[in-house]
Request: fold
Amino acid sequence: MAGFFAGRTLDGLGRDLRSGAATAPGLLDRALESIDPSLNAFATVDVEGAAAAARTAGEELAAGRDRGPLHGVPVAVKDIIDVAGLPTGMGSAHFAGHVAGRDAACVEALRAAGAVIVGKTTTHEFAYGASGDTAVNGPSRNPHDPSRISGGSSGGSAVAVAAGMVPLAIGTDTGGSVRIPAALCGISGFKPAYGEIPTGGVFPLSTSFDHVGVLAATPADCRTAYRVLGRPAHGGESRLPDGIRVAWIEGTPVAPDVAETVRRLVPGADAVRLDLPELRRIFAAIQDSEACEVHAERVADAPELFQPVTLDRLRRAGETRGWRFVRAARERTRYAAEVADLMRRYEVLASPTVPIVAPEIGRPDCELGPVQPALLSLTCAWNVLGLPALSVPAGTVRGLPAGLQLVTRAGDEDLLFDLAERITA
Reply:
């Protein structure tokens, strides 16, 4: 059964709060009632802290103090992002009992906007995986079929929104970790340009690629949240031009029924080939090197505290040669110039977000080969290049959600949202 927030938008909730049709404590109660433990979306629920925040938000709104569109709205935060006084467990036994001493920068922004933080959402261990099924507290489960993965690593955040537990959740995206679970769970997920939402207080995976992102039911709600969290604040009037040029990116395998379903949303797009497999190799060389640096002492001193899959990935990543990192960094610059040239001809690049639908939990392979690289194959390029990327629902394939990914230049985020809203209307 869908939770209270299924089908509700931030704009609609804001109107209800300001008209008196809803109250912040009442919305929090609906959020807590909507949490389905069987889906394992939450690692921690902060009943007491959220209740205090909701009371304050309600009193402020009643007194005419309006902090903006998130004031009084329940929000969930991924469990690699610090929230003062709550555990930050990273999905790992390494951080059992660890409690954050201060808020991450993005959480500070949420609190300043009057948002009510319900709790921390399940993450793939240390955010090092795209499936969302590897964590000390177990896998987050896809609301459309709990035997299947949510996608990751921000799987709990996607599940919390898709199941109607909260209307908005915060995640992180290093190679697709917001967009992948958004697509597989049938919601919207946005990764801004690199550095646009500060990552202070977010546990690193790969500092060259780490982004904070947002997950919500609609592109409009992602835009609302981004305008609160982004640096600098983005606003302005909608300006979607007639005759916008869209390129359909090809160059990596996609399940035929997924490609057919998603392509229908951008029927006039020109097919353009881009060497996504090479960008995937660049991504892997840099991410693996940086992840090894983050975890080197933990791998050496307490390997038994990792989930076996994570430990195996880190040990294989440790075999990355230094020359591969150096070459990847150089090639990254070359591909950035190539894509910048492409984006002088096209305002938006489009593709499926994920080339498959959600596989069963624990399944290592899919119709395109190993699951993990397949999940990342269409998303990680935009982390390598630091470009804004949005995943929106594109219908269903074999009864499971598929997503359309839209990419644009930094600074053209409103164009991206405007197009997404037109496509999904």
About this structure: The radius of gyration is 20 Å.
